[in-house]
Amino acid sequence: MASRNNKLVPEAKAALDKFKMEAASEVGVNLKQGYNGDITSRQAGSVGGQMVKKMIEKYENDLK
Q: Domain residues of the chain, as ranges?
């Protein structure tokens, strides 16, 4: 099993970072490149939740 920090597809890192920045922008969280340990848990959760929401929407649209 891959460790937590290893991506299954390393080439996808740039796309995931872009996706994360877009999701953060949509929920009003200002992320910067690199370390973002200064954001609150609520802000981080908002970004993650927005990412999941977008992934589910895409999956549902792909099923149509």
A: 12-25+39-63
Instruction: Give DSSP secondary structure letters for 15-53.
Output: HHHHHHHHHHHHTT----SS--TTS-HHHHHHHHHHHHH
Given a contact cutoff of 8 angstroms between Cβ atoms, the answer to whether 24 and 48 are in contact is no
CB atoms within 10 A of CB 23: 21
How do residues 21-62 score in pLDDT, each as one tens digit? 999 999 999 999 889 999 999 999 999 999 999 999 999 999
Amino acid at 12: A
Are 6 and 33 in contact by the 8 Å Cβ rule? The answer is no
What's the rounded Cα separation, in Å, for the pair 41 and 38? 9
Residue 36 backbone dihedrals phi, psi, to 5 degrees: -130, 35
